[in-house]
Structures are given as structure tokens and as C-alpha cells.
Amino acid sequence: FVAAVQTILTGQIAPTLNLEHPDEGCDLDYVPLKARSVDVRTVVKNSFGFGGQNAVLVLRRYEA
Question: pTM above 0.85?
């Protein structure tokens, strides 16, 4: 939750830990090695627990 809020506030997507050589066969938008600056307005946070306990939180930046 804290990392999601921080992403919205700073506009920085944190890098994926320990990802030095992404697999070229897997076409995902990785953020390796260093943070990326973007205009983040909405973040989705998924949490999965034991026994089927799941939660999804959608956070959106407030714009007056």
C-alpha cells in the first residue's frame, strides 16, 4: 500500500528487484535496474492470502 501511494506521489515506478536480464520471449513492460519517471494517476494493488483471502485496492490521484 505504501509503495503504491509513493508511486502516485513521486511519479516514479520502482525497478523490479534482481532483474538484470529479462527473458526476450516474455514481452512485458519491465522496469529493470533503475526507476522510471511517468505520470501515474491510478494504481491497482492486489493482495492474495491463504484460504482464499483476496483483496484489491484501486488508488487514484485526487485532482481538484
Answer: no
